[in-house]
Amino acid sequence: MKPLFRNPDKPAPARVAPASATPAAAPGAGGLWPGQIVFPAGAAGAGLWRRCLQQVRAIALSPGALVILAGQTRIENWTMLLASMAMQRRRAAFFHGAAFASMPGRLGAFADAVLLRRCHGVFVGTDRGCARAIAADVPPRRIFACRPPAALPEGFDAAAELRARAELAPPPHAPHYLYVGALVHSAAMTLLLRAFAAARAQWPAATLSLVGKGAGYGALRAAANALGLGASVRFLGAMAPADVAVEYRKASCLVLPEADQRWHPLVREALSYGCPVVVSVNNDDAGELVRDGVTGLYFKPGDAAALARRLAQVPAHFGDAASAARCQAAALAHSPGAAGRAIAAGCVRIMDTAG
């Protein structure tokens, strides 16, 4: 599969005119990619059907010949696909986002396969994504690598973040675990609490912080109390990105307990702050960006004992400045510039290839 991953640093040919993506991004540096902001207040608050209607309208009014499907749900992607087909536009899709992991099982895989086969190009972020695209009968010539970068604030200073982490890191005898996401009373969250309770047998001073909000707060608080965790589990509520960054600096690791999460943007974000990540082996980054014992650890899905063992091993693997530097270097190796060049080169090839 390696030959499918084009060189992201190879510049796109100068003769190419900008291809139109879904117009949801502002103009990039230098104004090379004129854009239109469809949702000034953010897409999340617009509602699913309003987003779909606005995306169809944007495709209809755009003079571009190529539409990149970048919706946050499968319905949005299908809406954009049908609109672009009706208007005889070429199509490309990203195949490493939440939209393709939101409906696990054979039905979801079948829907994704049909959608991808109707596209002229597919951007994948991992070797596993590449393999799944091939399994969906996407011709290899239509598959392009686009390693997704971390979403970092403007002015991010890598060296300063490593210094801040060294100052705020917890002592080895009191590891501090961090979860960021929705607070739902799910099997994954129950697994996390049980694993944390087991890990505290080795590290009695360990703590767990849960960042996020959701309807499962009461049930999770009750579950933590039932396990005798008490004040060792801290519910911090929703936080602004700057405050989440502070939590990354203070955490021994970020834990993502979901068994079926193929790809997660917080993996890159946490690593950029020098914070290692513990993920399920089902995560697309396990074995690639998350290298066992180097930038993180991974566990067998649904196995609380396995997760507990990994949590207990975190202080031994990631207790020094060198480990934080390794984590950060792995994340920052994939820059926004490299991702942009990869997308641009893929768009050029899509427009130059017939059929």
- List SSEs in N-to-C order: HEHEHEHEHEHEHEHEHEEHHH
Q: Number of DSSP helices?
A: 12
Q: How would you name the CATH homologous superfamily of the largest domain? A: Glycogen Phosphorylase B
Strand content: 5-15%
Please characterize this protein's 3D structure:
This protein is an alpha/beta fold and 355 residues long. The protein contains twelve helices and ten strands. The protein folds into two domains: 2-149 and 335-352, no CATH class; 158-332, Rossmann fold. The chain has a six-stranded parallel β-sheet with strand order 7-6-5-8-9-10, sandwiched between helices. Strands 1-2-3-4 form a four-stranded parallel β-sheet, sandwiched between helices. Helix 5 runs antiparallel to helix 11 (321-332) and helix 6 (187-199) packs across helix 10. The longest helix is centred in the last third of the chain and has 17 residues, at 336-352. Mean pLDDT is 85; it is low at 1-32.
Q: Secondary-structure map with pairings?
A:
Blueprint: H1 48-61, E1 66-69, H2 74-86, E2 90-94, H3 106-117, E3 121-124, H4 127-135, E4 143-145, H5 158-168, E5 176-180, H6 187-199, E6 207-211, H7 217-226, E7 233-237, H8 241-250, E8 253-256, H9 265-272, E9 277-280, E10 296-299, H10 304-317, H11 321-332, H12 336-352
Parallel strand pairs: 1-2, 2-3, 3-4, 5-6, 5-8, 6-7, 8-9, 9-10
Notable traits:
355 residues; alpha/beta; Rossmann fold; 2 domains; 6-stranded parallel β-sheet; 4-stranded parallel β-sheet; 12 helices; 10 strands; 40% helix; globular
